[in-house]
TrEMBL record:
UniProt keyword terms in alphabetical order: Electron transport, Iron, Membrane, Metal-binding, Signal, Transmembrane, Transmembrane helix, Transport
Molecular function per GO: metal ion binding
Lineage: Eukaryota, Viridiplantae, Streptophyta, Embryophyta, Bryophyta
InterPro entries associated with the record: Cyt_b561/ferric_Rdtase_TM, DOMON_domain, UCP037471
Listed GO CC annotations: membrane
Protein name: Cytochrome b561 and DOMON domain-containing protein
Length: 404
């Protein structure tokens, strides 16, 4: 009896111990190991700066248990890189993603994330000037962020997600290589030497970022700027100039039509310049200086043409002939340079093919109309008796502003 009772107690105790061990073993993965779903992670509740549906994902397999994962896309128009980086992180630790030109730590720039006392991510940018602790200096000047500084989200799977948009064309730091490292913090919160590190050749796929983001807003502003300048310099002003040259027989209606086109064109130019100035603050592609310089020069020519019309001499004034030469010459120069600058802008802005084709069609129609009307005008002028031919009446100068 007593032996059986003792044996039964032992079995009961053993059963309780087994149950406790089973429960603990099931709980350990939840609280101890990292749970990173990789590219299948739902970023909708982790990223608020931009939409992530168009980003391309890659898991780098480092470290094995909770690897770095990068979602990225470089916008075709603005060249702004939209990125989300997930990294392994736990309290009293740090994790970083660096950008290097040659794969080396020294000379690179890194985003390092730590956790505050309440578990909120703290993201700082460091320049890694040498391998000493003193050589790791907080310095955000080498990365040009678009739409604000990086933001972070920390989940309880011991993974941090940082999201940001950066313009590497304007940044001193270049993303030829990704550097990945993590380690511990000193008791004072400063960064200790990394525990593990690795580096990988960077690859950011080009494309178009969907939804409203800093990059998409830049793209929209770029299209508005281009559309205004094409409408002004590429359509309204040339048509107004052709009215002044070829429609003189409808006096005085031609003058009012001409002035209307030129005023509308000049208004589009002003709006386009204002948009371009704002755009240049956030968008610094290659060859921008040439496009901006030529654009400002054209704007000055447009202002001079408007002033010339306002201060034009009377038709019977002796200097009227010279005013016609000046007004026509500046107008021809402005319209020619405008074509050059529009194509330059379409090139540096990496405009969509439909956008380029639209302007090419407009330009082709204008050139065809000019050729036909010019031939008709010269035929009519040649049929006039020599005594009735007048440069001011028969074949006026092709000009922005006209000779009135």
């Amino acid at each position: 009896m007593g032996g059986c009772g003792c044996g039964g107690s032992r079995v009961a105790v053993l059963g309780v111990v087994c149950a406790v061990i089973t429960i603990l073993s099931l709980a350990l993965p939840t609280f101890g190991a990292a749970t990173n779903p990789g590219c299948s992670a739902d970023l909708s509740n982790k990223v608020t700066k931009f939409q992530t549906g168009s980003l391309k994902c890659k898991s780098y397999g480092f470290p094995t248990s909770n690897p770095y994962v990068i979602w990225a896309l470089q916008d075709n128009v603005t060249q702004v890189a939209t990125m989300v980086v997930s990294m392994p992180l736990s309290p009293n630790k740090w994790a970083g993603i660096g950008f290097s030109t040659d794969g080396q730590m020294v000379g690179s720039t890194a985003l390092v994330t730590t956790l505050s006392s309440n578990g909120a991510p703290i993201i700082k940018v460091y320049s890694l000037n040498d391998r000493s602790q003193q050589g790791v200096v907080e310095d955000a000047s080498k990365l040009t962020f678009v739409g604000g500084p990086p933001e972070g989200h920390y989940d309880q799977g011991r993974t941090v997600y940082i999201s940001f948009q950066v313009d590497f064309t304007k940044s001193t730091a270049k993303a030829n290589w990704f550097l990945m490292a993590f380690g511990s913090l000193y008791t004072d919160g400063s960064i200790d030497y990394h525990e593990q590190r690795n580096y990988f050749k960077a690859s950011i796929v080009p494309g178009t970022v969907v939804g409203e983001s800093a990059a998409s807003k830049l793209e929209k502003k770029s299209k508005i700027h281009g559309s205004l300048q094409i409408l002004g310099w590429g359509l309204l002003l040339p048509v107004g100039a052709m009215v002044a040259r070829y429609a003189r027989g409808f006096d005085p209606a031609w003058f009012y039509v001409h002035v209307t086109f030129q005023i509308l064109g000049f208004a589009c130019i002003i709006a386009g310049v204002a948009t371009g100035i704002q755009l240049a603050k956030d968008f610094q592609p290659e060859h921008l200086q040439a496009h901006r310089g030529l654009g400002l020069f054209l704007f000055v020519l447009a202002i001079l043409q408007v002033l010339a019309v306002a201060w034009r001499p009377k038709k019977d004034a002796k200097i009227r002939k010279y005013w016609n030469w000046y007004h026509g010459g500046v107008g021809r120069l402005a319209l020619f340079l405008a074509v050059v600058n529009i194509f330059l802008g379409l090139s540096i802005g990496k405009a969509e093919n439909d956008f380029k084709l639209g302007y090419i069609i407009i330009l082709a129609i204008e050139l065809l109309a000019f050729a036909i009307l010019e031939v008709l005008l010269w035929l009519r002028w040649n049929r006039q008796p020599r005594g009735e031919r007048s440069a001011d009446q028969g074949v006026p100068g092709f000009q922005f502003g006209g000779s009135v």
